[in-house]
Amino acid sequence: MRILCCSPDYKPSIGGIAEFTHQTSLALQTLGHDVFVAAPDSDGAREFDATVGGLSTFRIGGGIVPLSQFSYLNVATKLPTFFATRRAIMDLEKWMARFVEKHGVDVVLCFHWDIFGAAARRLRAQAGIPYYIVCYGKEILGSGASLAGRMQHGILREAAAAITISQYTRRRLLKAVGEDLNTIVSFCGVDAARFQRVSQADECISRYRHDGHRIVLTLGRLVERKGIDRSLDAFRICVDTLRDPSIEYWIAGDGPDRERLQAHAAQLGVGDRVRFLGAVSDEEKIRLYSAADLFVTTSRELSDGDAEGFGIVFLEANACELPVVAGRSGGVEDAVQDGVTGLLVDPNDAAGIAEAMITLLSDRPRAQAMGRAGRARAMTEFSWEQVASRIVHGLRDQRGRRT
User: Fold this and answer.
1) In the chain, N or C terminus with fewer CB closer than 10 Å?
2) What is the pLDDT of residue 55?
3) Are 162 and 395 in contact (CB under 8 A)?
4) Helix H segments across 31-66?
5) Residue in 403, 254, 219 with CA at minimum distance from that of residue 326
6) pLDDT score of 134
7) Listed residue (152, 144, 148) closest to 73, CA to CA
8) Which pLDDT does position 205 carry in this prediction?
9) CA 208 to CA 292: how far, in whole Å?
10) Would you state the pLDDT for residue 400?
11) Listed residue (170, 173, 192, 152) closest to 312, CA to CA
12) Is residue 360 part of a domain?
């Protein structure tokens, strides 16, 4: 197939959608498909594209306000912006029409419903080119009664199918848009060749584990949804129960919750055993996964519906042979095999989180066995080629139904 992959978020931008788009596009190409990527221009974009050999990437000017920013309440005050965005989408559709005709594109794969999805919908109406929309969870609007919701649901309903990254995302999508919506489930992936355990003799690993430290690790954006405050509560219980001065809790990443979490750790009396490392590179992430004894992220679903769509960090940790304790919420149950690659817990129950942490910190053979099982699962079930294969199988199945 000849596939045009479109995304408003693409490397070198940082984030899950950018990573998912990039890795899936590369994997589709590896499977033998002709892949073209359309993405916004940005600082460093052309330099990044030059490092990705063989993947044809086309950069398009930015400046479009996402459709999700518009509502019935603000559209009157944002009319100039709204019409400018509408005109930009029409121009994008014309560009896509010329592109698919020139390159003989079979399908358009949109890695977000907004902007490119709107243009692909117009392209389908004009030229009959099928399009597919990838859905993650948080961006799914619950009511078609809002302006953005009506636009989103229209785009999704006219798509050949929606691709969801977890069973949770699929359920949430069908509830919002309708049970008759065509869906394809394709979980997230991990590059197990890159994310693998670094030798404990590595100089950085030795620096991390000086004086025999044992490390509990959380890695991710510091936001309320990640449930790090409950993990801190659980860590305090671990400290009191295990009486092991070598155990520390390291939190890598940054975000708006950092100051609150630092204050919470101090209030719990464990501030001297909790390290906030800030943002880290992918290379540093691998070293941290390799140095740690246990990975903990107790993500939860918030009252506004915000939840973890899947959780690539759990696959990364497992690929580095690190067992995990994870909050049973959102799409995490697809990422973590309970009792095999880690333990799933109630993300709001600090005592339950602590029990799981204590179990794996106290039983090293079991923890190591879970780490090995996690790596085996990452390699056999969650390679990016498998992600791409599930998508391609779904595309062919949906196209076959239409014929």
Assistant:
1) C
2) 87
3) no
4) 45-51
5) 219
6) 97
7) 148
8) 61
9) 9
10) 56
11) 192
12) yes
Q: Evaluate whether residue 12 is within a structural domain.
A: yes
With beta carbons less than 8 A apart as the criterion, state whether 290 and 320 touch.
yes
Distance separating alpha carbons of residues 48 and 146, to the nearest angstrom: 38
134, 165 in Cβ contact below 8 A?
Answer: yes
More confident residue, 261 or 14: 261
24 and 80 belong to one structural domain: yes
Q: Please answer whether residues 320 and 217 qualify as being in contact, where contact means their C-beta atoms are separated by less than 8 angstroms.
A: no
Q: Which of 81-85, 136-140, 291-295, 327-331 has the lowest mean pLDDT?
A: 81-85
229 shares its domain with 367: yes
Look up tokens 């489930």; give the residue.
185
For residue 188, CA distances in Å to 165, 177, 197, 258, 370 come to 6, 22, 20, 27, 20
Q: Are residues 374 and 387 in the same domain?
A: no
What phi and psi, each to the nearest 5 degrees, are found at residue 217?
-120, 135
Residue-level length of the chain:
403
Going by pLDDT thresholds of 50, 70 and 90, the confidence category of residue 200 is low
Two tokens at 375?
Answer: 């790596």
Q: Report the DSSP beta bridge partners of residue 375.
A: none
Which tokens go with 313? 């960090």
Rg of the chain on CA atoms, in Å: 22
Is residue 357 assigned to a domain? yes
Q: What is the distance between the alpha carbons of residues 267 and 282, in angstroms, rounded to a whole number?
A: 31
pLDDT tens digit sequence for 72-125: 566 566 666 766 777 778 888 888 899 999 999 999 999 999 888 989 999 999
- The CATH number linked to 255 is 3.40.50.2000
Q: Is the dihedral of CA 184, 172, 384, 341 positive or negative?
A: negative
Which residue in the block uniquely carries the two structure tokens 């050949």? 160
Q: Does residue 165 share a domain with residue 95?
A: yes
CA–chain centroid gap for 74, Å, is: 30
For residue 116, give its domain range.
2-189+383-402
* Tens of pLDDT, residues 158-183: 999 999 999 999 999 999 999 999 99
Sort residue 149 into left (φ over 0), alpha (ψ -120 to 50) or beta.
Answer: alpha
Cβ atoms 49, 29 nearer than 8 A: no
Residue 75 has a pLDDT of 57
H/E stretch holding 398 reads helix 384-402
C-alpha 242/C-alpha 245 separation (Å) is 9
Q: pTM for this one?
A: 0.88
CB contact at 8 A, 3 and 37: no
Mean pLDDT for all residues in the chain = 89
